[in-house]
Design brief:
alpha/beta; Rossmann fold; 14 helices; acyltransferase activity, transferring groups other than amino-acyl groups; membrane
């Protein structure tokens, strides 16, 4: 049974209800001496509590998309060893009968079948709808420089399939979840493709290719999009490998990218723009933070080096290095009062100076959740569309 979805929640609901009924019926009927009766009743309570906790955990996971599979839950990656091939193997796209160029490299069917084994969103639209709705395709992007590989969902806008745009190269945007995150949440819960489609229809946004990913490329560790000394080269993967791989096989610009994300994804998006401004010109941070973190999920990401830690601290960079020529859109809820909340966002904004710019948007009554992030996604996409080539 899948970890995500209502079947597991409903099954655990039934199990919880049954354990409660059994506890109520069996409670007055236990037999034996006093120690044995106490032990039996404690056992009944424990079984009921465990079932209840599992039900709540499954419900929260179903809402938050924290873990997408049992292998994710136990810290195993499902993407397998990195494939040295570029993204074209995963897409496996070829010119159709209309002559529209879906991608520049064709592959053998066996390679395509293997590469898209984890495709879950290919039915977002049918081929007949691609020129009006666009396409969401599951792919695996292998990093030539980082040696890392991760699954992604790529949204190609409808213009990508229209003959009038057959020679157009589109701007690219990396969209990142929080930690640990599920990429499917960006489509099913945050509705990025649908919102971009709506914004384009209302002429508030221009066509962009969305490369939707999670920042957890070395599960269960939270790398914070950092090149960890003697560890995962997460920053190299997201900042260099992903744009190059996508640009080499799709009609997407190699530079002039945007980045967008929530929570940890917001920190990563801003970090990509600030540390690799030659590739990323703008970023949108939804409830992101702007300083380095160290906790049980990250461990030591800097190899004990204060310098490496500083170079991954966005506020330190603004205080000690020249500001990069990038634009940042930072949203934060007024109810986010913790160390990574509204105070941190305002502190970051106060440090920004030309040629960098920042636009801070506060969400009245907003918190750290999908509902409030979704309210800002349209404006965030519009912000990127105005700034990308």
């Amino acid at each position: 049974m899948p970890l995500l979805g209502w079947p597991l929640v409903l099954t655990l609901s039934v199990v919880t209800l049954v354990t409660m009924v059994v506890t109520l019926v069996a409670w007055p009927r236990v037999r034996g001496g006093r120690p044995l009766r106490v032990a039996q009743r404690v056992g009944l309570l424990l079984v009921t509590q465990v079932a209840t906790v599992l039900l709540v955990a499954a419900g929260l996971n179903n809402y938050g998309y924290f873990f997408g599979s049992w292998s994710d839950l136990v810290g195993q990656t499902s993407s397998g060893a990195p494939d040295p091939a570029t993204i074209s193997r995963a897409l496996g796209v070829k010119p159709d009968s209309s002559g529209t160029d879906h991608g520049r490299t064709g592959v053998a069917p066996s390679q395509t079948q293997s590469a898209v084994a984890h495709a879950t969103q290919s039915q977002w639209s049918t081929p007949a709808q691609w020129s009006t709705k666009g396409r969401v395709q599951a792919v695996t992007i292998a990093g030539a420089h980082s040696g890392m590989s991760e699954e992604a969902l790529v949204y190609l806008p409808p213009q990508y399939f229209q003959p009038a745009y057959r020679h157009t190269r589109f701007p690219g945007v990396e969209v990142l979840t929080g930690y640990p995150g599920m990429t499917t949440a960006l489509v099913e819960r945050m509705h990025y493709p649908s919102i971009l489609l709506s914004e384009m229809a209302h002429h508030r946004a221009k066509p962009m290719v969305l490369v939707m990913m999670r920042p957890t490329i070395a599960p269960p560790r939270d790398t914070e999009c950092t090149d960890v000394p003697a560890g995962p080269l997460a920053l190299t993967y997201f900042a260099e490998d992903v744009p190059r791989a996508v640009a080499s096989d799709l009609r997407v610009n190699a530079t002039g990218w945007g980045a967008m994300g929530d929570s940890t994804g917001g920190y990563c998006a801003t970090k990509l723009a600030m540390t690799h401004s030659s590739v990323f010109t703008s970023a949108v941070s939804l409830s992101g933070y702007y300083h380095t973190l160290r906790d049980g999920t990250t461990g030591d990401l800097w190899g004990g080096s204060p310098q490496v830690r500083h170079l991954n601290d966005l506020e330190w960079l603004l205080q000690h290095q020249p500001a990069p020529p990038v634009s940042v859109y930072a949203s934060i809820g007024t109810n986010e009062l913790g160390h990574n909340g509204i105070v941190d966002t305002r502190r970051f904004a106060s440090l920004v100076r030309p040629p960098m710019s920042v636009q801070v948007v506060t969400v009245a009554g907003g918190g750290h959740n999908f509902r409030d992030w979704s309210r800002v996604v349209p404006a965030g996409l519009d912000f990127l569309a105005r700034r990308l080539a």
